[in-house]
Amino acid sequence: MSTGDDDVLLPGTHPDAAPGGPLERALADLVRPGARVAVSDACGLPYVLAGPLSRVAARAGGVRLVLGWVPGPAPSLDPAAFADIRTVVGGPGLRALIESGAAHRVPARLSATPALLAGPLRPDLLLATVVEHPDGYRFGAEASWMRGLAAAGVPVAAVVSRSAPHAEAGPPLPDVTVLGTVDGPAGTPHTIETPPPTPTDEAIAAGVATLVPAGARVQFGPGRLAGALMAALDVPVQIDSGLLGDPVVDLDERGLLRGTPSSLALYGSPRLHAWAEGRGVVRPVEHTHDVSRLASDAGPLIALNVALEIDRDGQVNVEGVAGSAAGMIGGHPDFAAAATIGPGLSVIALPATHRRRPTLVDALGGPVTTPSHDVEVVVTERGCADLRGLARSERRRALDALWSGSPEPVE
């Protein structure tokens, strides 16, 4: 599924998703009045179920919806059909609903989502996309928090995709109610095409690349700057990340990828999906975002994270400014903390200005996503500020110097 509005395949256009169709009839047998229903997230989100679920929920009444990361719009999802919509991550596909108040974003780092979904937000049903193996069904392009729900006994109902990659490393799911089978665009994971980097992105990436030693474990997020960061690397690395994007394919083709990457979901193009087929690169969040594992001495973890803005104390906001829901917490604080605790480095990369306004601010325009003590090096197109071992007053001076264009070199 493409991100362009003209290219989005509306879930209702699939014959089985039509009003009164087989998907709606199957869901009607599973969704009870007042039930809490979770829908699996990331690029394997079953968009084809949005319309049928909305109609079933409206008839049942009182149905509460739990969403994870929604990478693209779901036009057939009717928010009025649900008594409550909550997301434990967010994402571009939910921005309008969050900003309008139709959906509520629960502030939580990704490592905390299993506890939330096992406790106050435990669902009665999980809807997902799965792929078929000779020995049973598995998740395809993502595992995230869904694998933990299945293991905890939450009933799983799914559409079987014949188009999604077989990328998960886990065993067959214990029990799956098959709602239907989808192929072609309706069964293909949401596709993300990242624009080419700007000269500013490339300047930032060049500075970051000097901080990554050969053999390091590298974490990177989605987006244009992240692609530039990976392209700038010239040493072999391992990938230990949350989302896995197309840059990992580039690393592999350049001979710089070591071992099997670890991620909770794919985030990219059909090229990435084809590369990930059968590689077992997708794992549950309990593994990918385990801070103790990430902070181990299995090799330094270089956490490469971006930000919307940073204040003079080094606190980072990635969630949005002026009431917007442009970003999300995700694994930002997990990887930053792990890199700081272990033998690694927590790096924040961002342009010095955005829309002609400085990204270094006296007071953040949104929440503190990652605290200052988990920020070690800040990189802009003007250079790097090494904050390790500095008192707060010294950190402020170092950040001021970076934004003024006279940073000290990183040792």
Topology:
Elements: H1 22-28, E1 36-39, H2 50-60, E2 64-69, E3 84-90, H3 95-100, E4 104-105, H4 113-118, E5 125-133, E6 136-139, H5 146-151, E7 156-161, E8 177-182, H6 199-209, E9 217-220, H7 224-232, E10 238-239, E11 243-244, H8 247-253, E12 265-266, H9 270-276, H10 285-288, H11 291-294, E13 301-306, E14 309-311, E15 316-317, H12 332-341, E16 345-349, E17 353-354, E18 357-358, E19 360-361, E20 377-380, E21 383-386, H13 392-404
Parallel strand pairs: 1-2, 1-5, 2-3, 3-4, 5-7, 7-8, 9-10, 9-13, 11-12, 13-16, 14-19, 16-20
Antiparallel strand pairs: 5-6, 14-15, 17-18, 20-21
Which terms summarize this structure?
single chain; 411 residues; alpha/beta; eight-stranded mixed beta sheet; six-stranded mixed beta sheet; 13 helices; globular; disordered N terminus
Characterise this structure.
The protein is an alpha/beta fold and 411 residues long. It has two domains: 5-187, Glutaconate Coenzyme A-transferase, CATH 3.40.1080; 199-404, Glutaconate Coenzyme A-transferase, CATH 3.40.1080. 25% of the residues lie in helices and 20% in strands. It is built from 13 helices and 21 strands. The chain has helices spanning 22-28, 50-60, 95-100, 113-118, 146-151, 199-209, 224-232, 247-253, 270-276, 285-288, 291-294, 332-341, 392-404; strands at 36-39, 64-69, 84-90, 104-105, 125-133, 136-139, 156-161, 177-182, 217-220, 238-239, 243-244, 265-266, 301-306, 309-311, 316-317, 345-349, 353-354, 357-358, 360-361, 377-380, 383-386. The strands form five sheets. Strands 1, 2, 3, 4, 5, 6, 7 and 8 form an eight-stranded mixed beta sheet that branches. A six-stranded mixed beta sheet has the order 10-9-13-16-20-21, with helices on both faces. Helix 1 crosses helix 2, helix 6 crosses helix 7 and helix 7 (224-232) packs parallel to helix 8. The longest helix is centred in the last third of the chain and has 13 residues, at 392-404. It is globular. It starts with 21 loop residues before the first helix and ends in a 7-residue tail after the last helix. The model is unreliable at 1-12 (pLDDT under 50).
